[in-house]
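2 proteins. here.
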Amino acid sequence: PDPKVEKVMVLMTDGENTKSKNGRWHNKGNKKDADDKTKALCGLIKAEDIHIYTIAYEVTDSATKTLLSNCATDSGSYFDAKNAAQLSSAFEEIANSLNALRISA
């Protein structure tokens, strides 16, 4: 709750939402339901002033990329990493942005 502390979340996936939560277990295979829950959770997280970085790692599904892009706090917080080098670069960019925040505070 300290206003001087920025809360951050990194969400990374390597594929489509294929399971939605049904009670305590992720055993319900419904992509639309899983996507809807992801959208809702992203909205709730942003409403709590938590900065969301999202990374699509080797994701080929355009709907999943759109979901992750929309979930990110802003366009600069979404990364489409097509390989391990780009994934490493995405994490490095996120780390650098967090260091910049710390230095300027």
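next one coming up
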Amino acid sequence: MDINAALVSRLVASQFPHWAHLPIEPVAYSGWDNRTFRLGEEMSVRLPSAEGYVPQVAKEQRWLPHLAPHLPLPIPAPLAQGVPSGVPSAEYPWPWSVYRWLAGEHSTSERIADLSQFATALAEFLVALQRIDPAGGPAAGAHSFYRGGSLTIYDAETRQALTALAGKLDTCAAAAVWEAALAAEWQGPPVWVHGDIAAGNLLVRDGRLCAVIDFGSSAVGDPACDMAIAWTFFSGAGREAFRSTLGVDDATWARGRGWALWKALILLAAHANTTPLEASKAQRTIDELLA
């Protein structure tokens, strides 16, 4: 679906006419699950890019206001939901959201003043998230793409990727990491998880972590999925600071490695011969996991 500024302008004008005069511009980094646009100076509009992401809208509308007061950093604040009457637009058939705008840039190593301090701040955020009462929260499932659930849901996909990548990396070592992750079964109580802790969802201002966005994959379950950034973004002292502040046990850390490995393997298998930049990112993660 072509989700562009003109479409968003018509949706806003028809459902929220008091905002119809505000300019609408696409953001530089819109993500995959949703398309995001800036609405005036103080708001953003976020629209699912496909039907599979639609359940995220109601989830964020319901739970983000509940989570926000307990967290040490700002998160998206829903202001309104599109298609409030339940009658889909002929142009855009799914619900969508208006949020308060969060200032900051997506995190890159060049924008971060101190990676260890950044890793510590992120871990403190996750610790606070996990301490929030999970009662009534959405259990891991299709809405979260099974973040917070068992790695076994992606076992077949991971093994297919290992087969496809034979000869391109040490698949025996990678398989050992995967087997260790599967064996480290989660035994703890369910906690809140973000589900997609990645550089693109962490905002930086003045060199420091200033906000965490995109809770579309959030759920209540196993926190191991939120460990994957230890290998996808951190290394060395940053990784050590992240783990030390989280205080996770060896089993959770092993499952976190499994989440990072699954994603890196399927991305490398998909992009090895088509998209060199994406392939190189996946290869870097696998190298970190196997080092």
